[in-house]
Design a protein that fits this description.
Blueprint (H helix, E strand, L loop, with lengths): L1 H36 L4 H37 L3 H15 L1 E4 L8 H4 E5 L7 E6 L1 E4 L5 E3 L1 E6 L1 H14 L5
Parallel strand pairs: 2-6
Antiparallel strand pairs: 1-4, 3-6, 4-5
Helix pairs in contact: 2-3
């Protein structure tokens, strides 16, 4: 008899727990429906306010981007010398927080930042950076892979001497 009561009690508790879970799910569903249906509700107002701020921020970012494109077009059309445009572009990159990377930072592998465009694919050899990688300075996200070439040690030494006379490749 005690066993039967204990079993019935355990089963009743399980049924009550299951019913409570169902009620919680239904309450969440009702809350969601009310938020969508009644735009004046506090939760809905918070959700709409967040969405409104995102739309405004997106619009501002778009205008800033368009402004940069216009400035680039004007700089290119007014310039007689590519060097003038290069310096302007470097300034815009700095303003945007974009970094040119000519060397592999500690904790990063060469393959994370550069694509191999020549050589035999052995990154253990000396590497000549042909073009820089571009990284978002805020997030560290690679925006564009740089280009690298593996060279033998003799070629690297001669190439390094020649490129040091010219400085790193420009944009």
């Amino acid at each position: 008899m005690k066993r039967q009561i204990s079993h019935d009690l355990g089963e009743s508790i399980n049924q009550i727990e299951e019913r409570l879970r169902q009620i919680e799910q239904q309450a969440e569903m009702i809350k969601t429906v009310l938020m969508v249906k009644e735009a004046g509700a506090v939760l809905a107002a918070d959700a709409y306010e967040g969405l409104r701020k995102q739309v405004i921020a997106s619009s501002s970012e778009r205008r800033a981007h368009l402004g940069q494109l216009v400035a680039m077009s004007v700089a290119v059309s007014r310039s007689d010398d590519v060097a003038d445009v290069r310096s302007q572009v470097k300034e815009w990159l700095a303003q945007s927080g974009i970094r040119e990377v000519w060397e592999v930072p500690t904790g990063t592998t060469l393959r994370d930042l550069f694509e191999l465009v020549g050589g035999d694919g052995d990154f253990e050899q000396s590497v000549e950076i042909l073009e820089p990688a571009y990284i978002d300075g805020q997030t560290g996200v690679v925006l564009r892979l740089g280009r690298a070439n593996t060279v033998s040690q003799e070629e690297f030494t001669v190439s390094s001497i020649e490129s040091s006379k010219e400085g790193p490749a420009n944009l």
